[in-house]
Structure formats: structure tokens, C-alpha cells
Specification:
It contains seven helices and six strands. It has one domain: Rossmann fold (3-Layer(aba) Sandwich). Helix 2 links the parallel strand 1 and strand 2. It is an alpha/beta fold.
């Protein structure tokens, strides 16, 4: 299969790029003449300790997408607010979906963008559970087999940040700890209950598949949220935004 033929550029109209949800369909139709790239933020509705909101994952992905759109010509899709949350599923407020659901949802979203003339899709997950990332990767692989003229990028935030470990003190940070709390202190400081931050590194039994992960966690934090700071968040954001901008430029050059 092929995506729709690339529309021709007419009139040279200057558009304000950014959030698709605030645009009309005619504005999207015009925008696709000037950019073929869209960022799709993925997150979850999931516990993040005593100090961060359930919306943390999708807010981080969405806000990073917005920051990229302020610097390069790219559209940002409405965020996907549910994800695969296995370890935290039993905490009140966590809403989990299956790997198959996130995979199929992603494939159908990608198909829609392809139909409308987009060529470059950036999957930007703020929720980094292994099952979530596997679902996104499988969706991307299956989609490009169906639509080989598409370019799909799956942004892996941990891989990016590994290059800059000097910014982060807690080398075992996994969830709701130093990294996410630092990012939220910049992006949504009014939603961070800094006085409720804790440090917790749950120890799960090696090799065992446990039926109730919550038995090994108290707060839901997997890291040192107490080490978070706005300064660290600003440094981490710059790293992430710059890396995604670089990806956008590489993708646009492929068209």
C-alpha cells in the first residue's frame, strides 16, 4: 500500500505550527503542504508516588512535543493518555490497557496520518514500561511493512539520557524519581507536591514473575525523587528537545 500522493505547495501561506487539536481540518490540510512530520505523544494514567499526578507521563511527552514545535516546523498530535501499566496496576488511579490494545491503537493512528499525507511519524513515549515500548515498536514495524513510504521514529528517552548521566545522581532511577520529578518541576511545577517526595528502590525477587508487585512497593516511587531539582529538569529537557529536533531535521531530509 501507499500513502496518499504528496500534495503540491500552493500560495506559500505561512501557517502557525503546533497543536493539531486547536486546528481546523482545513488548517491541517494546508500544514501538510509545509511539513510531513507529526509528533505523537504517548503516556499513561498511572500512579507516580505521593508527589506527582497520574497524568505525569503524558504531560511530559506532550510538553516536550510542544517545545519542539516552537523551534521547528512540525505538528503535535493530541496525546494518548492510557498505556500498559503492569507493575503499578493495583495502585488506585492507575488505568492500564493491554499490549495488543496499544499496538492496534498505534497502528490505526499511524494509518490515519498516512492517509492524510504525513510521511514522518515520531512516536514519543513518556511512559517507558517495557510492555508499552514493545507494543509501540511492534506497531511501528507492522505499519512500515504496510506503508513502506512512511518513516517512523520511536524516541527512546532512556537511551538519550544515558549519554548525559552526569546530570542524574540516582543511577537506578526508574519511575517517579529524580528524572520525572525534575522534568515536572519545570513543565508543571504547580502539580508537584515537593514536600511529599520520597526515595524508594523496591527490590523485586530476581527471575520471578510476581502476581502482586505492590507488595514490594510502598509509595510507588522507584528512585530518589528527593534528589530532583528544577535545574536538573532544565538540563534534561534541553537534551531531549535538542535530540528530537535533530530527528525531525533528519526525517524532513528524507522526503
Amino acid at each position: 500500500m501507499n500513502c496518499l500522493d504528496e500534495p503540491s505547495i500552493k500560495g506559500g501561506k505561512i501557517l502557525i505550527f503546533g497543536l493539531m487539536e486547536n486546528m481546523t481540518w482545513k488548517e491541517v490540510e494546508e500544514a501538510v503542504k509545509q511539513t510531513k512530520t507529526v509528533i505523537i505523544p504517548f503516556g499513561s494514567t498511572e500512579e507516580h508516588g505521593y508527589h506527582l499526578p497520574l497524568s505525569t507521563d503524558y504531560l511530559i511527552a506532550y510538553e516536550i512535543g510542544k517545545m519542539v514545535a516552537e523551534k521547528v516546523k512540525v505538528l503535535v498530535a493530541p496525546p494518548i493518555t492510557y498505556g500498559v501499566c503492569r507493575t503499578t496496576a493495583s495502585f488506585p488511579g492507575t488505568i492500564t490497557i493491554s499490549l495488543e490494545t496499544i499496538k492496534n491503537l498505534t497502528k490505526e493512528i499511524c494509518k490515519s496520518f498516512c492517509m492524510h499525507g504525513f510521511k514522518n511519524l515520531i512516536l514519543l513515549p513518556g511512559h517507558l514500561g517495557s510492555a508499552q515500548l514493545t507494543g509501540l515498536e511492534l506497531a511501528a514495524q507492522e505499519t512500515i511493512q504496510m506503508y513502506p513510504n512512511l518513516n517512523i521514529v520511536l524516541v527512546r528517552i532512556p537511551y538519550i539520557l544515558q549519554k548525559y548521566l552526569d546530570v542524574v545522581e540516582d543511577k537506578e532511577d526508574l519511575h517517579a524519581g529524580e528524572v520525572e520529578t525534575s522534568l515536572m518541576l519545570v513543565l508543571k511545577p504547580d502539580l508537584v507536591k515537593k514536600d511529599k517526595t520520597v526515595s524508594e528502590h523496591p527490590k523485586f525477587p530476581e527471575h520471578f514473575i510476581v502476581s502482586e508487585p505492590r507488595k514490594y512497593m510502598k509509595s510507588g516511587v522507584m528512585g530518589s525523587a528527593e534528589k530532583a531539582s528544577k535545574e536538573k529538569g532544565e538540563a534534561l529537557l534541553k537534551i531531549l528537545v535538542d535530540e528530537i529536533i535533530s530527528l525531525v531535521k533528519k526525517l524532513e531530509q528524507k522526503i
